[in-house]
Structures are given as C-alpha cells and as structure tokens.
Specification:
Blueprint (H helix, E strand, L loop, with lengths): L14 E5 L4 E5 L11 E4 L6 E10 L2 E4 L11 E3 L1 E4 L16 E4 L1 H7 L10 E9 L5 E10 L8 H6 L4 H8 L12
Antiparallel strand pairs: 1-2, 1-6, 2-5, 3-4, 3-7, 4-5, 8-9, 9-10
C-alpha cells in the first residue's frame, strides 16, 4: 500500500452508512471495487464526517476502514462520500482541514500561476486561506507531494459497469475543486 496515489477523484456513486464498532462501511448504489486498499474515503459534503483509510474491500457495497479515529463519531447513514488517493498522512495533519488538500495536475498548476492559488509544482497541495487585518483574502499553498502524474476519474471502469453518460463525464473530470484549481 503506497503512501499516496495519483487519483484526486475515484468514481463514488451512491450513499454510505458506517458501523463504528466493526469499522464496516456499507453502501447503497456504490461501486467500492473502483477503489483499492489504502485509498482514502471522505464522508459527507465537505468531508463533514471526516476521513478514513480503506483497509479492505469486500464487494461493490461493503468495505472496511483501518480506524475511525479521524471520523466525527456522528451517525453516518445514507450519506454521500468521495474516494481519492490523497496522502494518508494528511488525515491527521493539524495544518490542514480535510477539504484543504487538493490533487493538482499540470494544467491546473499552469492556470493557477495567475491566481492567488499559485502553486510551485503539480501534485498533492495543501491550501490555507484567511482574511488579514485589512480584510484581504490571503492564500498559502504548500506542495506536499510534488508529482506530475495526478490524474482524475476512472472512466474505463465505469464504462465497463454500464454507467450513464453523465456519470462518465463526471468521473472523467477532476475532483470538485474547479473554483480553486480550474483546468482552463
């Protein structure tokens, strides 16, 4: 199991429920077989319930997580989720919230050069924003893992699964970060 991968988004349809005692995640309409052991599952919109590392995948609708340490402890039942291969060590990095780590590909890094979100290198990037004493937005970016191979989507997998056209387009696109790191 690698410490990080290349995919900032893996096909994540359906909803999930989490059993904190057994560390089992059960899905409805899910396709967990698109993921791998060691990938990260982010639970809830904006990762409101937290994140966990996948310990094993039993089927398209059942997986286990390594620990619930980075989950909120709140009841998770019928909640959306997302899968990625972000660096596992960022789950407990106190410098970044769960939604402040981005997979930035070469095109996104190039476009970002002209914005406040400019990055030094494509790869896994941490972003912190704050308002300074003058009321101005300030942005700090840090390349956590410099790599040019960040990729998005799993179109080949979902085509084989018979996904709709909209699902294919969604999966082939990048993670929901286009406000911060747009492709063009």
């Amino acid at each position: 199991m690698a410490l990080w991968g290349k995919a900032d988004k893996i096909f994540s349809p359906g909803t999930i429920s989490v059993n904190y005692e057994t560390l089992e995640v059960t899905g409805a309409g899910t396709s967990f077989t698109a993921a791998s052991e060691g990938d990260v599952i982010s639970i809830g919109v904006g990762k409101t319930f937290g994140e966990a590392v996948i310990a094993g995948i039993t089927s398209a609708t059942v997986l286990t997580i390594a620990t619930a340490r980075f989950l909120s402890g709140e009841v998770v039942d019928g909640v959306g989720y997302s899968l990625s291969q972000k660096p596992k060590y960022t789950l407990h990095d106190s410098h970044y919230e769960a939604d402040e780590i981005y997979g930035v590909d070469g095109a996104e890094a190039e476009v970002a050069k002209t914005t406040q979100y400019s990055v030094n290198h494509a790869g896994w990037v941490g972003v912190q924003t704050y308002i300074d004493m003058h009321g101005e937005l300030r942005v700090k970016t840090e390349t956590l893992v410099a790599m040019s191979g960040i990729s998005t989507g799993t179109a080949e997998f979902i085509v084989a699964e018979g996904a709709t056209f909209e699902e294919i387009i969604d999966a082939a696109g990048d993670a929901d970060d286009d406000d911060i790191f747009p492709d063009t």
